[in-house]
Amino acid sequence: MSDLRVQCCIAGGGPAGLVLGYLLARAGVQVAVLEKHADFLRDFRGDTIHPSTLEVMRELGLVDAFLQLPHEKVSRLQAQFGDQVYTVADFSALPVGCRFIALMPQWDFLSFIAERAKPYPAFKLLMPAKAVGLIEEHGEIKGVKVETGGRVSSILADLVVAADGRHSDMRNAAGLTPQSFGAPMDVLWFRLSRRADDPATTMGRIDRGRIFIQLNRGDYWQCAYVIPKGRAEAIKAAGLDPFWDALLAAEPAFASRRSEITSVDDLKLLSVQIDRLPKWHRTGFLAIGDAAHAMSPVGGVGINLAIQDSVATANLLWQPLRSGTLTNADLARVQARRNPPTRLTQRLQITMQKAIIAPALAGEDVIRAPMPVRLLDRIPWLRQFPARLIGLGFRPEHISPALSRSFADG
Q1: Residue 281 belongs to what H/E stretch?
Q2: d(CA 246, CA 33)
Q3: Summary mean pLDDT of the chain
Q4: β-pairing, 76-81 with 84-90?
Q5: 13 in Cβ contact with 34 (< 8 Å)
């Protein structure tokens, strides 16, 4: 990688980074994507592919091949308050080709995008290659310092994109500091087997001071146990017995699966945060996805917002990148487009945290469903509104006609 020169260098091979790299390379922009790990095999990442992302895949001509990968379809979302189950979102009426959420391990999604990108001469995926610093001249970002195989080298680029997640090293190196909005909870993720007599429904339960979510992954349940912020170490220190007692109070049917979690190390912590950069860019540098705005897991929208960032970035920047005319005004246009849906989504998540999650975690005996939830259950046509917010978001992005034409030209 010594003296490698590209038009765009992307730090982070997650959904935002790989999708952006694929789109730019397909448009003829010389791009390098840096992924610090040697593979994509990391569990309990964002695994929900929403209708907005599936629509982008359809526009790219990839959706049929993509849906050949193993996945589970979720057409409705349900929530249980106390003993009552409510349907809160129904995706069946969305104006898109795929009217469901696809539950798929993130490594399958990333491998699929990487394999589609590799044939393009403009695309380079470097693994393992960790971005360890920025190259800066006279206040402008000119490239990235990269460590691979114990050696540090340089990649020069017209634009460095930070897509390296909520703890972004590149964002910090650029001197950009997010504003934090807090969160009342963290999440412990784990797996339990799914049996033939188990229900098929993906569901969340709120009752007796507990919040428990189980996602149907075919032959297993991906489970999320929501805990008060900062309580993870105390829960792990107390051992498995108190944890199982609390879990079985939420879902007694899992009693026979107690032997499947043998250590507190099987409980993987997601430290929940909601934050946002006041400014996403500086000369030669842009942050997108979680590096620009960390989302709560409420609604599972984080991965899909990140991909929407990538689509908007490609739509707005492929031409100035390919022609060598990129300016700060171009970077500002990305933030101007993506900041409003980010702010609205985070505002909705914060409202749900205050109205539902915080009271539940405070230990109220039985949580009665809020009136909006009860209305959604009683009046089916109302479910299209949360379905749109969750499935499509406040501003779904599409492949622009100009970008689409560049694919044929490239």
Answers
A1: strand 281-282
A2: 43
A3: 91
A4: antiparallel
A5: yes
